[in-house]
């Protein structure tokens, strides 16, 4: 299939630079729910565990030297009977981020990334946020003032839902969201919920949504019909495809994921008359895919850390780090920022503005 128009849309809407540069991108993924859906009790997967796809990126042919890789593997002290390096080998049972960056092998790996000026690329998805934004996107008024305004509306709704999540999830279950049959009743329930919001929590974005929904009481919410009952995300193939298309001249090497591969291989991905190069391989055949496993493991714990704290709490925790933690944090921050300086397209997220603000807080903090 010819995806040229899709690539042109990415360029126009997001202004990603150097989309035609010949990068080498290596991938692993974490928190793959396979399918994200509603059950009678809530979700089939922890909605706070963001799906993440990404890993290491290099300019074509410019990798860390074999000697540097050999020294790293030696320092990580991987057992001889291990066929490959896994995140668990450096995690050493650390559960939270501040514990993780205190582990010797994690510090060694981050220092290696820093010393070798490695780039990290990643895409993440907040499953619940991604699932509820169809409510906003179904309202044509949400697009009147551009993408950023639409994001503000989605983030405002997400924030309000988060304060009353149990009730809202039960609402979604009752209506078999996102395959709503009675749209008028669904809208009325949300409007009644808005009416109960504490006036002290007034938000102009919520008021805008309330007025939009009132005007659509007799309408069909376009993105909430023709779907499978309670299936909010049927797979994550679109994230893989988006990564491939964003850097259409790059070489993309994914850790083996058979179900995703079947979906992508249904048609040839063609851009500007050229087939895009990508492959799925067993991780034990590529050291850079293995190191991407370590990288994505660190990002998973890092994002969990950001998700579980407010910005005020994050700054308080940052101000009380040990000297060793500060050094590792600075190096990790430098790698993350350096990657975005090379190309801000190395980061792609489907998440709320509130979470993006936490990422920015980390990136800008003076450790």
Automatic annotation (TrEMBL):
InterPro entries recorded: DUF3800
Pfam families documented for this protein: DUF3800
Protein name according to UniProt: DUF3800 domain-containing protein
Organism: Listeria kieliensis
């Amino acid at each position: 299939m010819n995806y040229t128009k899709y690539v042109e849309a990415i360029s126009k809407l997001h202004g990603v630079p150097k989309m035609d540069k010949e990068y080498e991108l290596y991938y692993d993924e974490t928190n793959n729910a396979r399918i994200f859906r509603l059950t009678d009790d809530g979700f089939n997967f922890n909605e706070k565990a963001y799906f993440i796809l990404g890993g290491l990126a290099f300019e074509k042919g410019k990798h860390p030297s074999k000697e540097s890789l050999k020294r790293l593997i030696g320092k990580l002290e991987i057992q001889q009977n291990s066929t490959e390096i896994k995140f668990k080998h450096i995690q050493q049972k650390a559960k939270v981020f501040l514990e993780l960056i205190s582990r010797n092998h994690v510090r060694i790996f981050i220092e290696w990334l820093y010393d070798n000026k490695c780039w990290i690329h990643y895409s993440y998805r907040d499953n619940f946020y991604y699932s509820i934004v169809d409510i906003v996107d179904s309202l044509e008024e949400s697009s009147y003032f551009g993408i950023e305004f639409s994001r503000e509306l989605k983030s405002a709704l997400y924030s309000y839902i988060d304060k009353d999540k149990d009730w809202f999830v039960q609402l979604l279950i009752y209506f078999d969201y996102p395959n709503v049959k009675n749209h008028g009743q669904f809208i009325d329930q949300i409007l009644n919920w808005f009416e109960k919001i504490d006036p002290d929590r007034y938000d102009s974005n919520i008021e805008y949504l309330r007025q939009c929904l009132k005007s659509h009481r007799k309408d069909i919410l376009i993105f909430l019909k023709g779907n499978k009952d309670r299936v909010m995300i049927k797979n994550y193939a679109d994230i893989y495809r988006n990564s491939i298309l964003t850097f259409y001249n790059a070489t993309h090497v994914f850790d083996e994921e058979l179900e995703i591969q079947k979906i992508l291989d249904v048609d040839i991905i063609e851009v500007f008359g050229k087939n895009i190069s990508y492959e799925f391989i067993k991780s034990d055949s590529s050291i850079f895919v293995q190191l991407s496993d370590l990288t994505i493991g660190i990002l998973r714990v890092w994002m969990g850390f950001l998700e579980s704290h407010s910005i005020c709490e994050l700054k308080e925790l940052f101000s009380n780090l040990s000297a060793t933690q500060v050094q590792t944090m600075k190096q990790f921050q430098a790698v993350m920022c350096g990657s975005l300086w090379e190309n801000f397209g190395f980061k792609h997220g489907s998440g709320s503005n509130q979470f993006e603000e936490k990422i920015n807080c980390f990136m800008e903090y003076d450790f």
